[in-house]
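To whoever is on call:

I kicked off a structure prediction for a single chain this morning and the downstream step that reads the tokens threw a length-mismatch warning. I double-checked the sequence; it's 406 residues and nothing unusual in it as far as I can see. Pasting both halves so you can look.
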Amino acid sequence: MDWSDNTVQSTFRDDVRNFITTRLPDRYQGDSGEGEDFSGGWQADRKSEDAIAKGAAENWAGALSEKGWVAPAWPKEYGGAGLTVMEQFIFNQEMAESGAPSVGGMGVSMLGPTLIVHGSEEQKAEHLPRILNGEVAWAQGYSEPGAGSDLASLQTRALRDGDEYVINGQKIWTSGAHFADWLFTLVRTNPDAPKHRGISFLMLDINSPGVTVRPIIDMGWNHPFNETFFEDVKVPVTNRIGEEDRGWYVGMTLLDFERSGISDAISYRRGQKDLRDFLVSGGGDQFTRQDFSVVRKELADRAVETEVLFNFAFRIVSIQDSGMVPNYEASVNKMYSSELHQRMARTSTKAWGLYGNLWAEDSAYSPMNAAHVRDYVGSVPHTIFSGSNEIQRNVIATRGLGLPRG
């Protein structure tokens, strides 16, 4: 592991910092910068009726596009930046430090890399430029009510009818579908084949006749995801990526190996600093519980654990920089990060005693605008999505520790 920049990396870091300082719109100054925001942020701003919000989204997308930084990991011949692993790490680190939002969402991180590897030249020419200029946002249609962790059990059918597929079925937890223009999805084209076979990878306009997107409101009254229904939806065969019935292998393709989790570590560190600053300033005196010394020790533990997460990030990027792909290490990182997020939310909420139950952001009795109770509620699914922690433990046991499958 190497914690320091060499001369070239240091110059690149200064370039990224200066770019963010001069080009990041005021609207995004001080945002959390954590992950992909499907209930607001850049994804929502690009379709907003508010001219200021939409202008900020367009200006930021344009600024990143000028540098090729919309897609840092894509090869230059496809409009990306072609950054090295360490440059990607530095770029993501500086973006997270400043709270700058990424642009392109799943189009950049998932569909684009898949098209680059498996797409036809016509498909690349049609879709890649529109991802890079922020014209089209994508959503992922993978999970179904009966196919979550066991995704290969999906049942949404696509029957071929000449030059078209006719899709019927349902997807669930479709993150950002209410902001998306297009959807990429896995569908079953051969029900008689073994479950990992007989699946095809299709792209479709989300406004196609027969597609219905219904909101799913989470326990914090946010709208990050949806359920999506298909009723005789017609999709051209030319919108299939890769071979028919071989879509499972297409869907597993990703070129962006940035799996270090540096953005999470920085977000946690910033959240802890904001809490400490508020407490030290005396702003929290009226809210804190009388036995605060107990919580104080927990806050110290969370700070130490965040630095451990930082070191996980540096370990993973060092593996990548050596030409290897993180395997169980990425599972350790995901599991540790998601559980740390939940511990942090619990500790921060406990700091306020009974005031920590208040939900109203604008109440004079809500410490720090109820940020911590909202984070507490929002952290619940973090150990479930992106691969549940139970699955991650299986990966760590079999691939990392060499234990036999049960």
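Update from on-call: the warning came from a stale cache, not from the record. Cleared it. Sanity check on the structure: The longest helix spans residues 292-321.
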